[in-house]
Amino acid sequence: MSRIVLGIESSCDETGVGLVRLADDGTVELLADEVASSVEQHARFGGVVPEVASRAHLEAMVPTAERAFAKAGLTLSDVDAIAVTAGPGLAGALLVGVAAAKAYAAALDVPLYGVNHLAGHIAVDTLQHGPLPKPCLALLVSGGHSQLLRVDDVASGIVELGSTVDDAAGEAYDKVARLLGLPYPGGPPIDKAAADGNPEAIAFPRGMTGPRDAKFDFSFSGLKTAVARWVEGARRRGEEIPVADVAASFQEAVADVLTAKAVRAATESGIGTLVISGGVAANSRLSALAAQRCAEAGIELRVPRPRLCTDNGAMIAALGAHVVAAGRKPSGLDISANPALPVDTIVV
Ligand code: KG4
Ligand code: ZN
């Protein structure tokens, strides 16, 4: 008998509610994926304001859930299990989702699983491309995370190979966009501007690529500073800023480092599949360069469609379904949100 899993996500500025069907053979089918974003409320601050996000989650949670049930043609009584993001993320934002999930689980008397947001970003790919090969490698790049992970089993075994030592990749996009006078979030406008620019116009630094640097860690703050210095220098000289060239050259530096490290990690670990997820996975240059370098190295590349890459509830429902299928123990109603949940804790 197939089972319906409800997924709730509220770790940052997206209130997500997803519904999936877990079939007896372990396949997971997407039924609904409703998202309410508070991104516009944060735009004028150039970054997510935690208190504003928490309040927006509170207002959006029940209406978003209602939309998801309506979309799936299901009612609350159809739910067999609930998964909720327990961390990592913003404390107050996480709490809203965890409280809502507990209330639904108690009212419906179904098991509750507090799960890891980062594992959700990987599990979501199964909704589009089917089961993940074991092992596979995941590159998670968003406004909050930049990680390289070895995924032995998305429901039970994830090991961090490297992560950013300072800014997340998306954060670098957002900060550089601000420097160039482009709107927040900065990824899409930089991607667009870069299309008309020369990626070799300016040789921006490739962070953490020296012989003594950690092989699979990232650093983007030096790159951001280099862009800032370059722009300031041009302004001081009274020159017009070649926005397209700066955007293209910055974007090339980010995509170069991310794909080089990911392909190297896959090759050195003998892993044949790379999954790229998170908001930055929508970047056109990142996916093109990853496709080229993976093809050269004989690695299969999987990138979920942009809608699934950004924060959503379907990714948490998908992870919940894999956790249920793996027979993992439910978390219980006494779980709390953990803003710093480590990536190897997939279920709390
Ligand atoms: O996954 P996401 O929606 O939320 C977080 O968990 O952070 O990622 C948002 C990030 C933002 O920093 C945004 O600038 C970046 O993803 N982003 C992009 C693109 N679209 C979104 N970065 C580069 N190129 C894009 N096309
Ligand atoms: Zn995320």
TrEMBL record:
* Catalytic activity of the protein: L-threonylcarbamoyladenylate + adenosine(37) in tRNA = N(6)-L-threonylcarbamoyladenosine(37) in tRNA + AMP + H(+)
What is the protein's given name?
A: tRNA N6-adenosine threonylcarbamoyltransferase
- Single GO term (MF): tRNA N(6)-L-threonylcarbamoyladenine synthase activity
Is Cytoplasm included in the keywords of this UniProt record?
yes
Taxonomy of origin reads:
Bacteria, Bacillati, Actinomycetota, Actinomycetes, Pseudonocardiales
The entry marks the following residues as binding Fe cation, namely 117, 121, 311
Looking up Pfam families in the UniProt record yields: TsaD
Q: What is any one GO biological process for this UniProt entry?
A: tRNA threonylcarbamoyladenosine modification
Ranges for domain Gcp-like: 29-317
User: What keywords were assigned to this record?
Assistant: Acyltransferase, Cytoplasm, Iron, Metal-binding, Transferase, tRNA processing
Where does the chain bind substrate?
140-144, 174, 187, 191, 283
Localization, per the record, is: Cytoplasm
Q: Which InterPro entries does the record associate with it?
A: ATPase_NBD, Gcp-like_dom, KAE1/TsaD, Peptidase_M22_CS, TsaD
EC category:
transferase
Family indicated by similarity = Belongs to the KAE1 / TsaD family.
Q: Which cofactor does it need?
A: Fe(2+)
Q: What is its main location?
A: cytoplasm
| Cofactor note text | Binds 1 Fe(2+) ion per subunit.
Note whether Acyltransferase occurs among the keywords.
yes
* CDD domains, per the entry: ASKHA_NBD_TsaD_bac
